[in-house]
Amino acid sequence: MNKILYVLLFVLVVSNIPLLAQKGESNPNSNDYNNYKLNVSYKTNIFHNYSFEEISKIQRIKSDSTKENYERRVLYYFTLLQNTIPEKGFYIIKVMMDSLRYEFYENGVKKIYFDSQDDDSDAPFNQLDFLSYVIPMGKEFFLTYSAYNELAKIDGDALMDSRKAVNDEDNGIKDQKLNYIWNNSLSDNFLAFFTNVQRNLIPAERVFIDSAWVKPFDIYVDGIRYNDSAQVKLTAFSPRGYVIRAELDSLVGTDEFFTTTGYPDLIQPTSSLGKGIIRMEVSPRGQINLVEMNLITEFTAKVGKEPFKQKSETKYTWTLGKMYR
């Protein structure tokens, strides 16, 4: 009888060893002592409703030292759905850009208000900054992720048709400025800016608390696309989920043309720099609940012969709302 009891106790202890390691708890008999495998999960055929919120406070300093203050508030709702089984580690997420609310203030006075859910709301398509935000609304496309949790491509028949329509030789957008804005707002980089919630920050390898890894990163701020190598750390891991933090110490803007409020033409920056911090919360089941990004950026540019400087304090927030079949 005692022999049977010893065997049962041995089996119970041994069967719990891999479970402890999987949870990230100490396992002295494992080389994976106190390290963790971070996962992201989109349950098959479950709709994930996300909101994207932007609050940007902008100051423009003109060549005569006069200052203008602006504020942009954007609220985008979009839905993510994985409706196919991953193949060879690659998984595909369908994206539906559902609705948009856009507000713009100049020196404290509201100048633009648009809500796609309000039938009485007028869309100011002549405002180029607004136009760049509203173009993705209503679009559907697919994000393909690799086994390394990195965004591999963006595609979809409807998206490809939209791009072809913009550049159609006979019926496309002929105005050079508007054609550029439409192509930019339908580009992979701009669409990923709104919808790539995991931001390519999740590592493929196991990591320790406070161990750092480096990930290439880009983001749009005030119309300019910035690049950097994010310094990423796992800061918390518990039964309630995990938290990662990334520092962007050396954001550098590209020299691509962009639009900014108050100027009717495309502008090319002469310099653009910034820094920022990202914080991501992920549930025990791998759903990304929250991403917060705080950024400070500054660029210089010229309109004709007139130089100006623009500073921005920007907060982006991605929040998981409802999940349903």
Can you write the helix and strand succession as a string?
HEEEEEHEEHHHEEEEEEE
Helix/strand-derived category reads alpha+beta
Give the overall pLDDT as a whole number: 90
Give the terminus-to-terminus CA distance: 51 Å
Give the C-alpha Rg.
23 Å
In total, the number of strands is 14
Taking pLDDT < 50 over at least 5 consecutive residues as the criterion, the unreliable ranges are: 1-32
**Relative helix content:** 10-25%
Largest sheet: 12 strands, antiparallel
Share of residues in strands: over 45%
- Count of discrete alpha- or pi-helical segments spanning 4 or more residues: 5
Oligomer kind:
single chain
**What overall geometry do the principal axes of the alpha carbons give?**
globular
SSE topology sketch:
Blueprint: H1 2-23, E1 35-36, E2 47-62, E3 67-81, E4 91-106, E5 109-115, H2 128-134, E6 140-145, E7 151-155, H3 157-166, H4 176-185, H5 188-195, E8 207-208, E9 212-221, E10 224-238, E11 241-253, E12 269-282, E13 288-303, E14 306-324
Antiparallel strand pairs: 1-8, 2-3, 2-14, 3-4, 4-5, 4-6, 6-7, 9-10, 10-11, 11-12, 12-13, 13-14
Helix pairs in contact: 2-4
